[in-house]
Write a structure and sequence with these properties.
324 residues, alpha/beta, three-stranded antiparallel β-sheet, 14 helices, 13% strand, globular
Length: 324
C-alpha cells in the first residue's frame, strides 16, 4: 500500500468514485460452515493475511456460532415466511409462504418498518417469499387484481425503512436482492422493467438525492438490466462473474458503475492455486484500471480446500497493488 496515511475507508471511496485508489480493495468472506469445518486451521490463514482480513486476535472467533438464516431448524420471520435449514452455517430456504393463497391477503398485515436496514431479498425476492416462486411468476403473467397491491405493500415498507436509514447520514447504503437465475432473468427484462424497475428507482432515489452511494448485491444473470439498475441509482454493483461472464460485465459496467466483483465461487472447490491466480489476474486486467472502479470479493464455502483458501488470500494480496 503506497500511502500509509490513507485509511481503508477513504481508499474504498476513492475506488468507487474513480479517484485513483492507493490499492485495490479486496475481501474474503468465510461462511459460518467454513469456520465450523476448519476451525484453528482457518484462523491461521486469517492471521497470515492481515491485509485481507484486517486486525484479528487469535481465539476471538467462536467457530460454532451461527445465527439468523444460518441456524439449523425451522422458524418464521416477521413477515410470516417459514424458513428451514438442515445444515447449520449455510443458508436457509423459504418453505412456506403466508400469501400462497390470495384469500389470506385480505387480512394480512405487514410488519412495522424498522430503522436498522433492509435484509437480503427485500423487494423482488420478498414478493416470492410471500407468494411462493411459481405463484409469483404466474402472477406476472395472469395479473390478478391483488398483484399491484402486493407490490405496493412491500414497496411502501421498503421506502419507509430507507427513510429511517437516512437518519444515519452515511456515505453509502447497502442492499441485496438476487434478481437473476444462473443464465437469465426469471421474469425476463420486459416484465422486470414493468414491475420491478419503478420500485428500485423509488427506493434508491432518496439516497441519491443526499449524494450518498447505493451499493447493490445481486446474484444471478443480470446483464440485461445492469443499465436499468444504474438508472435506478445503483453506483456500486456486486454481481457474480460465473452467472454473467467477465466479457459481459466489462461491456455493461466498466466506466459506468463501480463493481465489487464476486469471484467464481463455483470454481474454487475444483481448481488449483494456479487456476485461482489466472482467474484473478484476468479479472483485474480486463475490468480494473488505475483510476479505480473495481473491488474484488471471494466467498469461501466449506467445500473449498484450505489450500485454495490460502491461494485466494495470497492472490488477492498480490493484486492489491497491481496498478501501482
Amino acid at each position: 500500500m503506497s500511502d500509509p496515511t490513507i485509511t481503508k475507508e477513504e481508499n474504498y471511496f476513492r475506488a468507487i468514485e474513480w479517484r485513483t485508489p492507493a490499492w485495490l480493495p479486496v475481501a474474503v468472506s468465510l461462511m459460518p460452515a467454513t469456520w465450523r469445518k476448519y476451525r484453528q486451521n482457518l484462523e491461521d490463514i486469517v492471521l497470515r493475511h492481515p491485509r485481507v482480513f484486517g486486525e484479528y486476535e487469535r481465539g476471538s472467533k467462536d467457530f460454532d456460532a451461527v445465527d439468523g438464516l444460518y441456524r439449523e431448524g425451522e422458524y418464521a420471520d416477521e413477515w410470516g415466511c417459514v424458513w428451514r435449514n438442515i445444515e447449520p452455517g449455510l443458508d436457509s430456504l423459504c418453505i412456506r409462504h403466508p400469501l400462497e393463497e390470495w384469500a389470506a391477503f385480505e387480512t394480512y398485515l405487514p410488519p412495522q418498518p424498522k430503522a436498522e436496514g433492509l435484509p437480503h431479498g427485500f423487494m423482488y425476492m420478498k414478493l416470492y417469499y410471500l407468494r411462493g416462486f411459481e405463484n409469483f411468476m404466474m402472477d406476472l403473467v395472469d395479473e390478478p387484481p391483488q398483484l399491484r397491491d402486493l407490490i405496493d405493500m412491500v414497496l411502501h415498507y421498503n421506502v419507509a425503512v430507507v427513510g429511517n436509514m437516512l437518519e444515519h447520514k452515511r456515505r453509502i447504503y447497502h442492499f441485496g436482492d438476487d434478481l437473476g437465475m444462473q443464465d437469465r432473468l426469471a421474469m425476463g427484462p420486459d416484465l422486470w422493467r414493468r414491475y420491478m424497475k419503478p420500485c428500485f428507482a423509488r427506493i434508491y432515489a432518496p439516497i441519491r438525492q443526499t449524494g450518498a452511494h447505493v451499493y447493490m448485491h445481486t446474484d444471478g444473470h443480470v446483464l440485461p438490466i445492469i443499465n436499468d439498475l444504474i438508472e435506478c441509482g445503483v453506483t456500486v454493483l456486486n454481481p457474480q462473474i460465473r452467472a454473467n461472464g467477465l466479457e459481459g460485465l466489462v461491456e455493461q459496467c466498466k466506466g459506468k458503475v463501480a463493481v465489487n466483483l464476486d469471484l467464481d465461487r463455483q470454481l474454487f472447490p475444483f481448481c488449483t492455486p494456479g487456476d485461482i491466480r489466472e482467474h484473478v489476474r484476468e479479472a483485474v486486467m480486463k475490468l480494473g484500471s488505475k483510476q479505480g472502479g473495481l473491488m474484488l470479493s471471494a466467498e469461501c464455502e466449506p467445500d473449498v480446500s484450505l489450500e485454495n483458501i490460502e491461494a485466494i488470500c495470497q492472490t488477492l494480496e498480490d493484486h492489491m497493488t497491481f496498478f501501482n
